[in-house]
Write a sequence for this structure.
């Protein structure tokens, strides 16, 4: 009797195992910074045409509010609050309202599945989209601030502080808008939440805080954009207290880090469902 090795038999399990090709290994995940830049550029070029008309709407809305308030507010601290709040309102309209709608529609249409297949960190997707939307607010915020200063006779010497106010307030509001859009079960609810958030930024940010009830002031302190408004409004004084300005900006930045972290968690939660 001859003995034949089992691996040469045509129906053997060992022979079948050797003929099965191994699965290709996935490449390494992209690093955070290159992935963030790639997502930012993609979002910026994709939303450029569609978002520019809405940016004009946000700018004209803020300018119209200042014109209406001109008949009520003469000057002083109230005028500073109106101009600062109207300027940051442009950021709220784009970074909070539109970003909530975008992520709500992206989740409902299955667009998150596309990003989930890419080897990019979830934080890069959230930060890239938030940065792209916040970038559209720069021209409108500057135009609104210049118009408000001319309308109320405020100095423009310290408008350079917008270099810090726009990204910090934009990060806080964009993180909140992304979280609302990702956590909302339906895109209609995400749109509603984004509009409610923008309305809160309008009422609590533009109206002078001295005329608000105590309960409303407490709600105002919970709004992320409040500290950006306060920091900007302080710079209109004859002798700004830069320690308070830096303190408000630091709080705004800390809130931005927390809101973006919540948005990243919400993205992970929505992507795996």
């Amino acid at each position: 009797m001859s003995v034949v090795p089992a691996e040469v038999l045509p129906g053997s399990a060992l022979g079948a195992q050797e003929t099965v090709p191994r699965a290709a290994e996935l490449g390494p995940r992209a690093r955070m910074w290159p992935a963030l830049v790639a997502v930012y550029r993609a979002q910026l070029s994709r939303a450029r045409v569609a978002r520019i008309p809405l940016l004009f709407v946000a700018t004209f809305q803020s300018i119209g509010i200042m014109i209406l308030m001109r008949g009520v507010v003469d000057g002083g601290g109230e005028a500073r609050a109106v101009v600062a709040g109207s300027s940051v309102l442009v950021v709220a309209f784009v970074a909070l309202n539109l970003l909530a709608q975008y992520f709500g529609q992206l989740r409902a249409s299955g667009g998150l599945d596309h990003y989930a297949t890419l080897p990019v960190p979830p934080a890069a997707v959230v930060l890239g989209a938030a940065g792209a939307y916040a970038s559209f607010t720069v021209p409108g915020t500057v135009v609104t601030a210049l118009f408000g200063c001319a309308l109320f006779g405020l100095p423009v010497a310290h408008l350079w502080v917008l270099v810090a106010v726009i990204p910090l307030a934009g990060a806080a509001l964009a993180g909140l808008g992304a979280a609302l859009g990702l956590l909302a079960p339906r895109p209609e609810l995400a749109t509603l939440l984004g509009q409610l958030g923008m309305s809160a930024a309008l009422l609590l940010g533009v109206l002078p805080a001295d005329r608000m009830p105590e309960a409303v002031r407490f709600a105002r302190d919970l709004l992320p954009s409040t500290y950006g408004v306060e920091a900007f409004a302080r710079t209109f004084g004859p002798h700004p207290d830069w320690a308070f300005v830096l303190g408000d900006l630091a709080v705004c930045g800390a809130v931005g880090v927390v809101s973006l972290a919540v948005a990243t968690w919400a993205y992970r939660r929505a992507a795996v469902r």
In short: Residues 12-21, 23-27 have pLDDT under 50 and may be disordered. The two ends are 60 Å apart (CA to CA). The chain has eleven helices and no strands.
